[in-house]
């Protein structure tokens, strides 16, 4: 059981670090995370977003549109948008909750449609949910946060993203057949991105990249653009620039050596592309970086 002080600290921590959670296909805006050790009655109200609650312990009732549903330890329930509802408990509920909405602008259409099904689902009260993936993820997130150690933002956000996505499986019946977030395509695109990053010096042809994941060039090009917002050529150029900038900053490698490691056939072509992207030549970029580093060191003295 979480104390009042620890519950408040967890709420603040989660709400600060997990207000926006982005993923490959679906992104979320979280209005608040909540953890009440003793939630009593609240007024009748409604939300414009989804609010999911989990009863850690205690008994009470959830009233939606004047229909009362009993709540007990292990109940997971969903308050759907624009419906009047209320939570009541005489003795108090230990309650975890989160209010969120899908960010349509940064979410693929099929994921927006998938989550929209939460607005009409009739499976919004789940009893004995202790072993559901959603609850296990939620408990893990709360437990990790309660330790108040320095945790990677990405680690927390990945865990929270999995939790919010898992609500589809929990509340939408038959969603495995009806909802396809195309994880296989994500895996294929990630394989290609890794293949490109690891082989910039001697980059395979796009036809070979397509063969690597057993699809056609045309299908690969479509998937890559859909999942990254870039075509493959744009992605390759961006990765080459990242590598070049890193080498210019961190090494004394010659321009010829950097050009070769980044997959450019000549120093002249490397300089032309780098200058077009950054506005300065590779040599000038390195000089500027060295000068700025020296100024910073002098200030520290």
TrEMBL record:
Transmembrane segments: none annotated. InterPro entries: AraC-bd (IPR003313), Homeodomain-like_sf (IPR009057), HTH_AraC (IPR018060), HTH_AraC-typ_CS (IPR018062), RmlC-like_jellyroll (IPR014710), RmlC_Cupin_sf (IPR011051). It holds the Pfam family AraC_binding. The lineage of its organism: Bacteria, Bacillati, Bacillota, Bacilli, Bacillales. It comes from the Bacteria. Residues 190-288 form the HTH araC/xylS-type domain. One of its GO terms (molecular function) is DNA-binding transcription factor activity. SUPFAM superfamilies: Homeodomain-like, RmlC-like cupins. This is AraC family transcriptional regulator. Keywords: DNA-binding, Transcription, Transcription regulation.
